[in-house]
Amino acid sequence: KGAQKFVTFTNDPANPVYVGNSGGPQFVVTADHESDQLNMLGEVAVSPAGNHVLSASTKRMTVDGKTVSMPDADRIFSLTFSPDGEHYAFGAQSHGGIIVYLDGTPQSTLAGIEVNESSGHFLTQSLVHFSPDSKHLAYFCRSADPAAGNNQGVCLDGSYLPIAYPGTLGNLMFSEDSNHLFWNVWTAVKFRAYVDGKPVVESRPPATGGFDRVAFQPDGSNGLLVLGQDEAGFKRFSITPSADSGLATMFGSRALASR
User: At CB < 8 A and 24+ separation, what contacts does 32-39 make?
Assistant: First the structure.
């Protein structure tokens, strides 16, 4: 239903993208090309440059008008393009969990974790996140190794970093220079902020209001601003990553290949 009213333009203003309805099934029209009929169309995404279009429905999706069957997927969601439009990622949920796909390829066996978007302590987030320079992909995930206790962690460019601190993960984001990765872990009484896999702040969460837009955000200079609270009131933390910290220090992150 969310896609029924979708309409936008590609990089050619004469070629709009819109969703049509055929008495139940829907279809996506890009310029003069009409997709196959799609049941329960859920999402449509257009790349920033307007040159690629994705759509997701029950058991299948379309990539630039071509239908891709995904028979094991109960839900296909979080269609996301990289800022340069050269890569795309999404989540496919089945009885076995959520698998993240990059450019149509499943990312090993590390199950993705969908962020709870109803909590006021979290930004409304996509499942997957591209860096501003479009060279890295990150998402919350779980280890597929039973010996690891199904630990929750962060997946970056195909590598897994476990997070031993118990709690709810949220606010995954890259710095503006694409060299650092931030996130936090919340419990009922405190939270930890992480930079490049290392905890840098521990505080009580703000107890009044949601603060979903100001509690955790980049500062515009590749650092991080965090709002916390203690007995004396609200506290503002300004975090500047150290010069020897970065994505490469997490586990030798590598850039995404061009497609």
Answer: 33/65, 35/62, 35/65, 35/67, 36/62, 36/67, 38/62
Is the separation of the CB atoms in 181 and 171 below 8 Å?
no
Length of the chain: 259
Q: Which two tokens stand for residue 73?
A: 């997927």
Q: Is the CB of residue 49 less than 8 Å from the CB of residue 14? A: no
Per-residue pLDDT 10s for the chain (259 aa) are: 444 566 776 666 667 777 777 666 777 777 667 777 777 777 888 888 777 888 888 888 888 878 889 888 888 988 999 999 999 999 988 887 788 999 999 886 566 676 544 344 444 567 899 999 999 999 988 776 656 555 788 889 988 888 877 788 888 999 999 999 998 887 777 788 899 999 888 887 666 555 544 467 778 788 888 877 777 777 788 888 888 889 988 876 555 555 5
**Rounded to an integer, what is the distance from CA 107 to the centroid of its chain?**
14
Angstrom distance (rounded) from CA 255 to CA 160: 15
* Nearest-5° Cα angle at 2, 50 to 11: 10
**DSSP letters spanning 184-237:** EEE-SS-EEEEETTEEEEEEBPP-SS--TTTSEEE-SSS-EEEEEEETTEEEEE
Phi and psi at residue 7, in whole multiples of 5°? -155, 135
The DSSP call for residue 249 is H
DSSP string covering 61-84: EEETTEEEE-TT-SEEEEEEE-TT
